[in-house]
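Pilot study result, target chain (312 residues):
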Amino acid sequence: MKVNVKSDRNQGRPPRRRPEWIKVSAPSGETYEWLRGMMRSKSLHTVCEEARCPNMGECWGAGTATFLLMGDVCTRSCGFCDIATGRPEPLDWLEPERVARAVQAMDLRHAVITSVNRDERADGGAPIFAMVIQRIRELQSGCSVEVLIPDFKGSMESLKIVMDARPEILNHNVETVQRLFKEVQPQDRYEWAQATLTNAKSLDPDVLTKSGIMVGLGETMDEVKVVMEDLRSWDVDILTIGQYLQPTKEHLPIERYYTPEEFEEFERFGKDIGFKWVESGPLVRSSYHAEKQVRALSVVHRKLYGAETTNA
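Predicted structure:
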């Protein structure tokens, strides 16, 4: 069963008009149509579609997408997310093979893999992540893998299953400031995010860790900077910051739009406190420019491709 997320904050409030710097183009083009057809033929889901990502046209037009594992129904009901909440179907143990075959067909050099939450399982579905990483390595030599994982309720055992497969980037989004955490993602805990990111480094000191923040949900700039400082104290390497865009009128409302100059301020601050890479802008999402990040920063990827670029 799927259910919709609703927010009491929306009652009696007209939607905010989008500023001129937030422009989203409708996805189109031959590559986009080919990719959409391939995803349907392999019964695969993408977070690009399920979360209504504003960059889908750009990324799909370039032949890249973020694969969504373990179905399109989530066991959690976050107020910002358009993925349905409900009781998921049983895990499909053939899904890793289909994802890896799609990565091979797209001839990807960097694959981004995420999932819904599967809290009905003690392992959170961690073995599916490990299987996908391993199969991509077998079928698409030289392709680095980034996984955007759930928090597994802070479980070290579940995280270890993923980390033993040695992804190049381990991503878990903190999403918002600590004050708004329970309203924005009521089944999550800030401490679980901390455990996920810090434990990933303890399990594999060479992994690049990454996290993301949405702004526009009612936080202050100072609160965002506190979260950024927390993430650096957890030894997170890569940070993404983007504007929250309300998927439907039933989701949390946009409290305000940040200006491009404010996103530039976040980027400067992030670099000043030691992040290796900061991607900050109105339409930035977690996997935006992901291949560029790993090629610039990953020791493993640098050995494979000799990449020496930075975003300085």
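One observation from the pilot: The two ends are 47 Å apart (CA to CA). A full batch analysis is planned for the follow-on phase.
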